[in-house]
Amino acid sequence: MSDLKRQIIVQLNLKDLKPEDIGDDQPLFVEGLGLDSIDALELIVLLQQEYKIKLSNAEDGPKVFQSVRTMAEYITAHQAQKE
Amino acid sequence: MSASVLIAGIGVISAIGNNIAESLDALESGRAGMGDMHWLDSFHHGKLPVAEVNLNNKQLSGLSGLPPTISRTALLSMIAAKEALADASIENFHQLRTGFISANTVGGMDKTENFFKFFLSDHGKGRLRDIIHHECGSASELVAGQLGIRNYISTISTACSSSANAIFFAARLIKHNLLDVVIAGGTDALTKFTLNGFNTLMILDQEYCKPFDENRKGLNLGEGAGYVVLVSERVLSSLKKNPYCSLSGYYNANDAYHQTASSPAGTGSLMAMKGALKQSGLSPADISYINLHGTGTQNNDISEGTAIKELFNPSYPKMSSTKSFTGHTLGASGGIEAVFSVLAIRHGIIYPNLRLTTPMKELPFVPETKFLKNEKVIHVLSNSFGFGGNCSSLIFSKL
Amino acid sequence: MEIKVYIRSTANISPQKTFGESQSPDVAVEYRGNRLTCIEPDYSKLFDPKLIRRMSRIIKMGAAAATTCLQKAGVAMPDAIITGTAYGCLEDTSIFLTRMIENKEEMLTPTAFIQSTHNTVGAQIALILKCHHYNNTFVHRGFSFESALLDAMMLLNENHYTNVLAGAVDEITDNSHAILTRFGLYKQKPVSNFNLVQSNSKGTMAGEGAAFFALTNQPAADNDAQLNAMTTFYKLKDINETGKNIISFLKDQSIDINTIDLIITGRNGDKKGDEIYNHIAHAVFNNHQSIDYKYLCGEYPTSTAFALWLAAGIVKDRAIPAWVGKNSKNRSSIKRVLIYNHYQNIHHSLFLVSAC
Q1: CA distance B371 to B103
Q2: Can you tell me the ipTM of this complex?
Q3: Omega of the bond prior to B314 within 30 degrees of 0, cis?
C-alpha cells in the first residue's frame, strides 16, 4: 500500500504529503484528503497506467477510491481475475 | 446609454447545415448532425460520435474566401459572419462605426496539433505556418479583415459561455455609444485536443447524446460558428429590411463552485437567468421558450434543471436543447443558439429536444420533443454555462 | 464615457521586484540573454496548499496579483473580475498536447486540460473569493489587456458597479520561447536588458507578467491614480497616423499636451519597431521627457499592464522612482502621464493617467 500511496501523491500533485501522512483507511474524498471529482478521474488513469485495470464506469469511483485500502483491494481482486 | 439593441442579421454553420436555410430545414425535419468523424484524424474514430460540419477545409475555404491552409476555426467563423453581415443588409456599413467581437476556445489548435507532432521531437521542426494563428485572437482578426471591420475587434474566451458573452459585450459597446454595428458571436472547430480533453473528464457519450433524459450519459462534441449583427436604434434607418428582434436582457454570473463541475443547486445558472430577466424587466412568466444549455451531461442537466425549477416553478415555458442536433459546439454554442433563438421568434417555432425518452425524475417539467409551428414566441431565454463556472443568459424579444 | 474611473490599488508580479512588502524595488534587476522571467513570491504564504496543487504557474501569478491588489484596495468582493491574456495557459496546453501526442491519445489525465482553458485565471480568482459576479476573459493578442480595461470602464459607467478588478497575465514557457524565437522576435545575440533600447539591432527580449488593478468610480483620498482615458488603434496606414491619433486622443479628452509631465513608451529595442517612437518623439513630444518600460519587463502582448502599473505608481508618488528611467532629469512633480505602446506595429494603445 505504501507504493500505492506514493503513486497517488505523484499523480495528484500532493507535494506536501509523504506516504506516512496518508492513513490506510483514511477517507480520500470530501473529508480526509479532500479530493474531488477531477482527482477521481486522475486515479482512474493511475489504475490503468500502473496496474492495467480499466474502470470504465466513473460512477464506481466513489466505492473503489474510498480509501487506500479499498483501492488496494480492488487492484488485487482485478489483477487476480486476469491471471 | 441608448435603449435598444436590435438584431439585424444572423449567420450560422454547424453539423446540421451550412447556412440558415439548411439549419432551419434540419431543425424542422429532426435531422441531427452527429455521426462518425470524417475530417478529424483521431484514435477515437468509430468510438466517439461527433457533430462535424459537412465540409472539408478546402470546401470551407471556397465558401469563405480565406485560404485553405488557415485554421478551420477561422474558416467556419468567416462563413457564418459573412452570412450574418449580408443578411443585415446595412446600406452604409462602411460609413458607420463597426466592430467584430468573436469568441472561441480552441483558436488555431487544429493546426497547432499538427505542428506540435514535429516540434516535440525537434524544436527546429514543424511548419511555422501551422502555428502562426494559434492565438484565439488571430481567427477574429483574419475574419474582421475580410469583412472590412476596423474600428474595434476583440476576442473573448470563457469556455462554453464564450459567444454569449461576446454578444452581450457587443451590445454594451453599442449602448455606450462607442459603436453603431457589431457582428458578435463565436466559432470553434473540432480538434483532437478538445476531444481528448473532454474524454478525460469522462463526459462524452459513446452514443448520440440525450440532453435532459434520465439516462443521459454525456455530450457529443460539435463544431461550427454563429453570429448576430447587433445595431443601435440610430442605425435603423440604414437597414433595408426589418430587424429580427431585440436583445432585451443579458447577464453573466459565476458559479464559483468548482473548476469544471456545476454546483448541484445551479447557483450560477440561477443567477444568470434571474439577472437577465431583471435586466430586461421581464418576469419568468413572460418567457415563451428556453433554449437550454442542455449538454447531456449528468451534471449540467441536473444543475440547469434545478435552477429552472427554482426560477419558473410552477409554470414552465416550452424548452429544448438544440445541442441534441448540433452537439456541443463549445465556444460557438452561445452564438449558434442565439441564432436559433432569433429564428424561433421570427418564425414562431419551437425546436424539439431529440432522443428524450425518459424524463428526469427530479424535475417537474419535460422539454419539448416535437417541432412546433405557429407558436407565439415573444421572449426567448438562451442559456450558456461554461467551465470555470462562467454562466451567461441572453434574452431575445419580439419587437 | 462620463463617469470617472480611478485606480484604487495595483499589484504586479514581474521580472522586477515589484511584488511583496516593498512595492518599489531599490534597483532594477539586470537580465542577460533574450528572456526576462518573473520574480515570484512564495505562494504557500498566500494560498492554501490544497488550492495550490491545482494551480499552474500562470494561475498562481494571476491569482496572487489579483487577491493582493484587492487586499490593498480594501475591497473584499469586487463587482466584476475581468482578465486579459493573449496566450492563455501555455504550460498546461503544452503538457496536455505533449501527452496526447506521446501517448497517442490514450491514458490522458484531465488536470492539464482543465487548467489550459483561457478563462482559468479569472475562474480561479472567482473560486478563491467565492465571487459570483460578472467574470470575463479577453484573448485578443496585443489588445487583451486593453479590452479587459474597456469592459471594466464600461461596467463602472453602468448601474450597480462600484469596484471592478481588471488585469492581465501572460507567461513565456520554454516551448513558446523556442517557437517565438523561430519567428525572429528576439535578439539573436545576448544583450543586457539595461541596454535593450540602445541595442540598435533586430529583435527584443521576451517577457511575462501578471498585473491587476482595483478600479472604482468612487473618488477617495487614498486612490492611487485616475485613469482618465484609454484608446486603441489597429494597423496604421503609415507612421504619420500615430502622431495624428495621439493628438486626436488628447483633443477628445480636452487635454492640453503641455500638461503632460511624462511619456512612457513601449520601446522594445527592435530597431524597426522602435522607429515609430522616434517619430512621435520629434513630431508630437519634442518638449516632453519620456521613459521606457519594456527593458524592465520584456516584450509580451499584455505588457501595457506593467506600464499602467508603473504610471499609477508614479502619479501616486508624483515622482519617477530612482530605479527607473536613469536618464530622466525632472523626476518630481509628475502628475500626468501618457503611455503609448504598440505591439508588433499592429496593436497600438494609449493610456492617460493622472494624480488624484
Answers
A1: 29
A2: 0.97
A3: yes
Q: Which domain holds residue C316?
A: 225-354
Q: Lowest-confidence range among A13-22, C66-75, C93-102?
A: A13-22
Does the beta-carbon distance from B258 to A37 stay under 8 Å?
Answer: yes
Full residue range of the structural domain in which residue B258 is found: 245-397
Give me the pLDDT at residue B364, please: 97
Q: How far apart are CA B352 and CA C214, in angstroms?
A: 46
| Angle formed at CA B92 by CA B86 and CA B95, multiple of 5 degrees | 120
What are chain A's partners, defined as 3 or more CB pairs within 8 angstroms?
Answer: B, C
A42: closest CA of chain C, how far (Å): 6
Same-domain status, B273 and B230? no
Instruction: Verify whether the Cβ–Cβ distance C123 to B44 is below 8 Å.
Output: no
Let me know whether B292 and B227 are in one domain: no
Say if residues A17 and A62 touch (Cβ distance below 8 Å). Answer: no
R_g (Cα) of chain A, nearest Å: 12
Cα–Cα distances in Å, from B160 out to B103, B348, B392, C172, C203?
10, 27, 9, 26, 37
- pLDDT tens digits for range B57-96: 999 999 999 999 999 999 999 999 999 999 999 988 989 9
C242's grid cell: 500615430
pLDDT at C1: 81
And the C-alpha cell for B80?
457564418
Q: Counting every residue, how long is chain C?
A: 356
pTM: 0.96
Mean pLDDT on B257-267? 87
Total structural domains in chain A? 1
Is residue B347 annotated as part of the catalytic site, yes or no? no
CA distances from B379 to B48, B382, B392 (A): 36, 10, 16
Give me B25's grid cell.
430545414
Write the pLDDT tens digit of every residue in C192-209: 999 999 998 999 999 999
Whether residue B160 lies in the annotated active site: yes
Contact B19, B12 (CB under 8 A): yes
For residue B293, indicate whether it is catalytic.
yes
